[in-house]
Structure formats: C-alpha cells, structure tokens
Amino acid sequence: MFRDGEVKSGFGDVLSRIKAQDADAVRAEAKDLGLDSYFSIHIPKIDAKEDIIANVDPGDKSEYLEALSEGIAHAKGTFFPGQGKNIYLFSHSTDSPLNFARYNAVFYLLGKLETGDRITIYFLDRKFTYEVTEKLVTDSGDTSWLEERGQGEVLILQTCYPPGTSLKRLIVVAVPK
C-alpha cells in the first residue's frame, strides 16, 4: 500500500515488537550478570565483568585514572560496537588478588585468554560477541593500537604487563563472531 510516497509492508509493527523483545532479553541477560546493558563487558573465561566508561581520553592521566576507578575505559576517538571499526578498551591489572578491589583491576587475568575465547560487549541494549584472535605484549609507549587499522570491526583490550607494573602493555585482539 502506498501512503505519502512510502511503501507499507505490514511488517513494521511486527519488526518493532521483535526488536523491543530482543532489547528486553539483552537487558535481562546483562542484569543477571550484574551489568548495565548500556555499555559493559563480560569475559566468561576469566569471570571479568564491568561497566565501560565511554570516551575517556587515554592521554589525560587524571581523566583515565578517575574512569578506571569506576570501570573499564573506552578510549576517546575510537569507535563503538556495531560501527565496523576499532573499539579500544583499557583497564588496570595488579600483581595480587589482594589489590584487585583497590585498583578495580578488571583485566587482572587478561593474559589467560587464548585464541577462540569469547568476549561479550553490551551496548545500547544490544549484545555483541567477539572471539579472541591474537594476544601480544607491546612497549608501554606504543599508541599505534589506538589508530584505525582499516580491517573492519576489531575489539582491542589493553592492560599493563606484567600485572602490577607499567613496564609494557598486554593487548588482546578480538573480532566479531
């Protein structure tokens, strides 16, 4: 049927209800994990789960330290799930489980991830699943991972390495599954 130049398929209401039900299911799943479906992460293998603070300047120490005390930081200037480009998240590590709470060291066990492990990001009531493809250690001053790589959507997780130091950076790379 044509109305004001639009084609009506009759499926609009059905599709809207399905999308709303999907969003409800994602919100419920995130809530069951103790997370907010607005922006959060869950890494089942290492039982890491935390809310993500969006658009944190990785070059502003006071800004990122404040964000890291509340959750995982999303690097300002990188993208978000579903946008098809680099998503860069960073968090503290620590050398002792005793310091985990003190430093909010969500990525404490990030080094245990291996190729094929799953990572879930909840973003704007949608669920995005990624699979680890690479893990490497870089120099602490290596900021190249913040740059767009032109390889489609890539999730990059970063923490200090070895845990509890700032000598180097551990990078975990994952792609949409």
CATH architecture: Beta Barrel
* Biggest sheet descriptor: 8 strands, mixed, barrel
Alpha carbon gyration radius: 18 Å
Structural class: alpha+beta
Number of domains: 1
Helix content: 10-25%
CATH superfamily: Sortase
Q: Which descriptor suits the 3D outline?
A: globular
Measured distance between first and last alpha carbons: 38 Å
Kindly state the number of beta strands: 10
CATH top-level class: Mainly Beta
Question: How many alpha or pi helices?
Answer: 3
CATH topology: Sortase, Chain: A
Task: Outline the structure in words.
This protein is of the alpha+beta class and 177 residues long. The protein has one domain (2-176): Sortase, Chain: A, CATH 2.40.260.10. Helix content is 20%, strand content 36%. It has helices at 12-32, 61-70, 100-103; strands spanning 2-3, 6-7, 39-43, 48-56, 72-75, 86-90, 118-123, 126-139, 154-161, 168-176. Strands 3-4-5-6-9-10-8-7 form an eight-stranded mixed barrel. Strands 1-2 form a two-stranded antiparallel sheet. The longest helix is centred in the N-terminal third of the chain and has 21 residues, at 12-32. The protein is globular, with a radius of gyration of 18 Å. The model is unreliable at 99-103 (pLDDT under 50).
